[in-house]
Design a protein that fits this description.
Elements: H1 8-19, H2 26-51, H3 56-67, E1 73-74, H4 76-83, H5 87-99, E2 103-108, E3 111-119, H6 121-141, H7 147-166
Antiparallel strand pairs: 1-3, 2-3
Helix pairs in contact: 1-2, 2-6, 3-6, 4-5
Length: 167
């Protein structure tokens, strides 16, 4: 490996190998890079959302509704499961999105006590534009890899994450 091809993680690992030769610092080769990449992804996501006047939590709720397919509606309980927040938090989020004109509530015709939350036309347009922008930025983040490298990396990450997702 030439000095030009070394990255910050290579320098970090080399320093730890010098300072603590008694430790196996091999996990840093992968996980420090994942951590650094996550920071770049977070910046790209926040920029895409901000460009469309959305907060990350707004994007999460709107995309959960958009992925549900027409008529782009879910119960608050289904939104809870999709976004992993408390019911009080979800109520607040739905209220704020409704005030912004991005979602609306309607009575659930199959449950007289329930409501359904649906995207408005404005909500669909906003989430679609933000999602397109996000994907453009994510493609840029992965541009150093060809299609087969991206597929291999996705497979390896799936293997690594599967036990966490199962629990």
């Amino acid at each position: 490996m030439t000095e030009d091809s070394r990255d910050e993680v290579d320098r970090l690992v080399a320093a730890w190998q010098t300072e603590r030769p008694d430790l196996d610092v091999a996990p840093l080769q992968v996980l420090s890079r994942v951590s650094r990449l996550a920071k770049h992804l977070d910046r790209a996501r926040r920029a895409a959302f901000a460009e469309h006047d959305l907060e990350p939590w707004e994007f999460d709720v709107l995309t959960a509704l958009r992925r549900a397919g027409k008529p782009y509606e879910l119960s608050p309980g289904a939104l809870l499961r999709a976004t992993l927040v408390t019911s009080g938090t979800m109520t607040n989020r739905i209220d704020r999105l409704a005030q912004a004109g991005l979602v609306r509530r309607r009575p659930d015709p199959e449950d007289r006590r329930g409501v359904l939350v649906s995207l408005t036309d404005t909500g669909v347009a906003r989430v679609d534009a933000a999602f397109s922008d996000l994907l453009r930025r994510e493609h840029e983040l992965l541009s150093a890899l060809d299609a087969s490298e991206r597929a291999a990396l996705a497979g390896l990450l799936r293997t690594l994450l599967a036990p966490f997702d199962a629990s």
